[in-house]
Structure formats: C-alpha cells, structure tokens
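## retry 2 of 3
previous attempt timed out at serialization; input unchanged, resubmitting
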Amino acid sequence: MIPNQTRRDIPGTTPFDGEQARKGYALNKMCFSFNDAANRAAFLQDEEAYMRSYGLNEQQASAIRARNVLQLIAAGGNAYYLAKFAGIFGLDMQDIGAQQTGMSKDEFKAKLRAAAFQ
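## retry succeeded, writing output
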C-alpha cells in the first residue's frame, strides 16, 4: 500500500495487493505453469508431488485439494492465475462466480442475465 493511502475494504472480498501477491507467489507460479499441457498432465498424475515442487504451504495445498476458489484467493491466489487451475477441471468463470456467491451455476447465470436487462 502507498504511504498515507487508506485501503477501501469491500465486505466479502480479499483485495489482491502487494501483501497478497507475496503470500500467493508459489500458488500463482504453479497455476501459471498450467499454460503448458505437460504441466497440467503432471499435476493430474500426482497433485501432491506437483504442489510440493512449487513449495505450496498447507493453506494453499488444502485449498487446491478442496478446489475452493475462495480459499485459494484467501491463500494469495490471483483470479487470472486461478482460472488456469480451474480450466484443468473444465470449469469456467461462471463456475467460479457461482462458487464465490454460493449459488449454483444456473442461478449465477440467471442473475447475470437479469442484471444485463436492467
């Protein structure tokens, strides 16, 4: 944070700031590696070994095991890199949005459509 600047807290969100970037460096680096098909295959073959090779801490590894986007964000994950992880399992941004809001994907899509016509 810039000195003398106050951070605006938004309820229910985790701002991705410098602290979060440092906290999530290993997690985001691992997720970035999923741009390569061979790395995605290696992860699927042995998730635990792949996570260890990137030095994920227990909070990050637990969130990966749970496939929980909110926990991944709390562990320092950046949404852009987490999308790489979600893609391995055929999840898209609407799946992630549904998880973040506690809705089913169909409910989330309906909410998006309703908001588009207001």
